[in-house]
Design a protein that fits this description.
The protein is α/β, with parallel strands linked by helices. It is 31% helix and 20% strand. It has 12 helices and 14 strands. The chain has a 6-stranded mixed β-sheet with strand order 10-9-11-14-12-13, with helices on both faces. The longest helix has 21 residues. The radius of gyration is 26 Å and the shape is globular. Bound molecules: zinc ion (ZN). Zinc ion binds next to loops.
């Protein structure tokens, strides 16, 4: 009997006694599934097993690798699937190798494209999942979200001396920091077909060094953008958390991402608007992180997009929710908030790493949200009015409950349940790109009407998150 173990790397292979080889033997965990969720922000690898797994890990440089030893595990075809699941364009992982390091220890080596700050943690069984071992590969240095946002869609600057990243960040911040007039005017009065040109600049004094002004093209008549509006769009769920699943298999996380992408495109057609997506791909973002992202860019609005299931398949219609600082306005609203707030458990939060964030969040929640709720109700009312033209409303008024994702104390925030994916008819509509477009129109119009009536103030708050 030939024993060939094609490991392909320098595993110290000690042959396991055959009695230990059977998967599921006492003390040995069996792999249920392996999943990889690549994203620019971070790549997550999940190993789901029937028993909890314990690990040790270390990083190696030149080239960068993350080595993880998993106890109580035998190499199995299920685990080997990991190798094929890493995509060629994964931002963090360039390759995976797995091998039996000792009879009871499997070694996983992740070849890295860049240095990472890994977070490795386990999750107990929840929802449809058994035990999960999670590796989150995050960049060592976080990118500046505000800088990325302001640069997004901007014309390429003239190739002058490259400014330092600090200078660029400062420029980005100041671009966001002043007036909003242009946009508000545009919303209130749709642009005239041929706007009167701005006052021509005074003729420059003749200067020897100045080249003659070109006859054409005329200087840009576009108004200078000196205050951007930043809208945070928050497609619910993602990654390990599929959200609700419709009777024919449509997943909430996919449909809300599609709607958010369309809405982003629609909103950013206005050059004074930038959109921050709390996620722009299929990966999981904890609820507090969604709030933090919006606050870091000092978003003017926060719009969370969902399409949930309800207890009965008959439930139908869109709803708009805002935060409540007391009891929920209905049992259904409280039920929905509880459901959404459970997303972190399904999606998988690294509790250890999140403790500091959670403390900050708790401090945040102690801050008054009265003014935020007042503004959110206005925004919610405008959006509800528009969605009501597209389809049925579940309730004709904005509801309130304790949604964790709506708790930024200084950003008007709404959560839109676009439809009930659990209702077969509504699931069908949600799939339909035309219906999605109508929905996006309604959301964009509701947002524009809110801004027209409630022009954002000059920014003065400081971002502490
Ligand atoms: Zn949802």
């Amino acid at each position: 009997m030939k024993r060939r173990h094609a490991l392909g790397w320098t595993a110290l292979l000690l042959k396991a006694p055959d009695t230990l080889a059977a998967p599921g033997a006492p003390g040995q965990a069996s792999i249920i599934a392996v999943r990889v969720w690549p994203a620019q922000e971070y790549t997550r690898v999940t190993i789901e097993s029937d028993q909890p797994l314990s690990t040790r890990h270390f990083l190696i440089e030149a080239p960068h690798r993350l080595v993880i030893d998993v106890d109580g595990l035998e190499l199995s075809p299920g685990l080997r699937e990991l190798i094929g699941k890493v995509k060629a364009d994964d931002p963090y992982i360039s390759g995976v190798r797995v091998g039996q390091n000792t009879p009871t220890v499997v070694r996983i080596v992740l070849d890295l494209r860049q240095p990472v700050a890994p977070q490795i943690f386990t999750l107990g069984p929840v929802a449809a999942y058994k035990h999960r071992l999670v590796f989150d590969l995050r960049p060592k240095v976080e990118t500046d979200p505000l800088l990325a946002l302001v640069q997004d869609g901007e014309r390429k600057p003239a190739p002058a001396a490259a400014p330092s990243s600090t200078q660029r960040a400062e420029a980005a911040a100041s671009a966001v920091n002043d007036a909003l007039g242009d946009l508000i005017q545009k919303i209130e009065r749709p642009p005239a077909p041929s706007p009167a040109p701005a006052l021509p600049p005074p003729a420059p004094p003749a200067a020897a060094s100045r080249p003659p002004a070109p006859a054409a093209p005329a200087p840009s008549t576009e108004p200078k953008i000196d205050r951007l509006i930043i809208i945070a769009l928050d497609p619910g769920h993602g990654g390990e958390d599929p959200g609700a699943i419709g009777p024919s298999g449509l997943r909430e996380k996919d449909v809300v991402l599609a709607v958010a992408h369309k809405l982003r495109e629609r909103l950013t057609a206005n050059p004074n608007i930038r959109v921050l997506m709390t996620r722009d791909a299929d990966f999981f973002v904890p609820l507090h992180e969604r709030v933090r992202k919006a606050r870091r860019v000092q978003a003017d609005l926060f719009v969370s997009i969902h399409a949930d299931a309800f207890i009965t398949p008959q439930a139908r219609g869109a709803s708009v929710f805002v935060l409540s600082d007391g009891a929920a306005t209905s049992a259904a609203a409280r039920w929905m908030a509880d459901r959404e707030n459970a997303a972190d458990m399904v999606g998988g939060v690294n509790v250890g790493a999140a403790t500091k964030d959670a403390n900050v969040l708790r401090a945040l929640l102690d801050m008054s949200t009265t003014a935020q709720i007042k503004d959110s109700l206005k925004l919610g009312g405008e959006v509800l009015g528009q969605i009501g033209k597209v389809g049925k409303l579940h309730k004709p008024r904005v509801e309130q409950a304790g949604f964790a994702v709506l708790k930024a104390p200084d950003i008007p925030s709404i959560l839109v349940e676009t439809a009930f994916i659990s209702n077969p008819e509504e699931e069908k509509k949600l799939r339909d790109p035309e219906y999605q477009d109508e929905l996006v129109d309604a959301l964009a119009t509701g947002i524009a009407r809110y801004f027209a009536k409630n022009p954002p103030m000059a920014r003065k708050r400081s971002t502490t998150l």
